[in-house]
Design brief:
This protein is mostly helical. It has one domain (about 5-190). Helices cover about 85% and strands about 0% of the residues. Belongs to the MntP (TC 9.B.29) family.
């Protein structure tokens, strides 16, 4: 694979995480660069690991992962999106405001990162059949995702000022829409 192809794979694999990060950034109370970098790091690491896992799984499980990746991604994104919508409809309290201002828990960030990287695992499986250096591809995917998530959270902050209190509602809708788009893309192709 040439460097441009590897970069394009990295950018393509980071788009779902970017959309989720915009929603997360919009829901946060005054996100700071360190918070955005933390989220970017978590998403980037998860997104870099999943193609390696897929590559290691290889041909033995390729049919299973390719058959279900879109359903898994949709379920995780929809569940996270519904949770965000539910939270946006609850009265504001100090605990929710504190969590939002801190960027959420590490576990929630990791789950969101996993939800947006299921397709990267399927890409990893397909790369098992090609003569590639999976470590280089995983590194590029991770770096692209790190950058896109960090930017997404900071852009979400600006959008959050415009959207106001219902920013988390918008973030939840975005997550559900991303999950539905993944599902539609895979079901329409099959």
């Amino acid at each position: 694979m040439n460097p441009l192809s590897i970069l394009l794979i990295g950018l393509a694999m980071s788009t779902d995480a970017f959309a989720a990060a915009i929603g997360k950034g919009a829901a946060m109370t005054r996100p700071r660069l360190p918070q955005a970098l933390r989220a970017g790091l978590v998403f980037g690491v998860v997104e870099a690991i999943t193609p390696v896992i897929g590559w290691l799984l290889g041909t033995a499980t390729a049919r299973f992962i390719e058959a279900w990746d879109h359903w898994i991604a949709f379920a995780l994104l929809a569940a996270l999106g519904l949770h965000m919508i539910w939270q946006s409809l609850q009265p504001a309290d100090d605990e929710v405001a504190t969590e939002a201002s801190n960027g959420g828990s590490l576990l929630k960030l990791a789950i969101a990162g996993l939800a947006t990287s299921i397709d990267a695992m399927a890409v990893g499986v397909s790369l098992a059949f090609a003569d590639v250096h999976i470590a280089v591809i995983a590194l590029v995917i991770g770096l692209c995702t790190f950058t896109m998530v960090t930017l997404g959270i900071m852009l979400g902050q600006a959008l959050g000022t415009i959207i106001g209190r219902r920013a988390e509602l918008a973030g939840g809708v975005i997550l559900i829409a991303v999950g539905a788009a993944i599902l539609y893309e895979h079901l329409g192709a099959g």
